[in-house]
């Protein structure tokens, strides 16, 4: 019998509860991935232009921006299983409501559905990382976090394959019934599958934090403020850049290269296959290359590919332009996603255990607030016909600033690790 590589065999040793948690996250991410691939195209098919799409989708991030910090403070030190179960049920239900309001043209109600969906996603985002670190053994935390992030790639693979197959078929006739497989039907099918997520979360142990807060839930230790602010600077830069460009990549390929939804989903699936594999090897990469290689190296390579992809718009009529753009698109996301588990583990180590829920909430608020603001900026830029390549250059610049900002965190954690004694104590500032 063929023996598994050592890095892959470590995943087989993870506890059952970690695997159940990853299964629940996979189902939630199945909805997120389908929306990332197809939601903008679905809205475009309903007659909305780029500015209107950006304006509508930005509502999803408002709830997270305003409620993330209170949610993080409230969840700090509390059992997390029940909030996860409720949010995992609420998220697909509100996603279904959003699809139906748009399909029936109830555009006045659509923003409220996006707001509700954003709130459910907020709870899932705030609670997931701390919950995984609570149920995973400390010596397997890297593998557990990498598996958690890999569920995005796995969900995107399944969503991309199903989308390509269904839209490749186009439609079928069953007697007098005519079924059309378009963006709406694909989003609907994957959202319904995601309704099974709460059943996996219900099987998790309700693991408490190792230390409970002794003061009021609104209290934040004074010495933690500089730690939190410094840990959030890279996220702020990267989230703002991603909000301006990455969430609209499908519109870039649709408007610049006239690439249809089926083709975009197919190439997206290839990218997600690579992202899934790359996510699983993150612990091994970090063991061999350290924090700098696993974060600075891979993110810098992703930025170069993003710039190249955007610049192809200047030669969009050339024979080579679309192939080069697609190659950059396929490899950029695996590299950027590959840094995710390492940056999360680094941030959690830097701020200390008592601040895990809080830093998770702040990250969620920053991502949502930045994506909302960036979507508004994108709306205005596209309304003034600014080309995509210039928007991608701004994104790349913000990515580089965020990437370099991780160096200070890396130095602080590396100094602290040899002397680590108490899990609740944050590392000294660099």
What pattern of helices and strands is seen along the backbone? Answer: HHHHHHHEEHHHHHHHHHH
Biggest β-sheet, characterized?
A: 2 strands, antiparallel
Average pLDDT = 81
Q: End-to-end distance, in Å?
A: 49 Å
Helix count equals 17
CATH architecture: Up-down Bundle
Q: What Rg is obtained from the alpha carbons, in whole angstroms? A: 21 Å
The percent range for helix content is over 70%
Number of strands: 2
Could you characterize what this model shows?
The chain is mostly helical. It contains 17 helices and two strands. The protein has a two-stranded antiparallel ribbon with strand order 1-2. Strand 1 and strand 2 form a beta hairpin. Helix 5 (81-103) runs antiparallel to helix 8 (183-193) and helix 6 (110-135) packs antiparallel against helix 16.
Brief description of this entry?
With 430 residues, the chain is mostly helical. The chain contains 17 helices and 2 strands.
Which key features would you list for this structure?
single chain, 430 residues, mainly alpha, Growth Hormone, Chain: A, two-stranded antiparallel sheet, 75% helix, 2% strand, disordered C terminus
Chart the SSEs and their pairings.
Layout: H1 6-12, H2 16-45, H3 50-57, H4 60-75, H5 81-103, H6 110-135, H7 141-169, E1 171-174, E2 177-180, H8 183-193, H9 197-201, H10 224-245, H11 249-257, H12 261-280, H13 282-311, H14 321-338, H15 340-351, H16 356-383, H17 388-416
Antiparallel strand pairs: 1-2
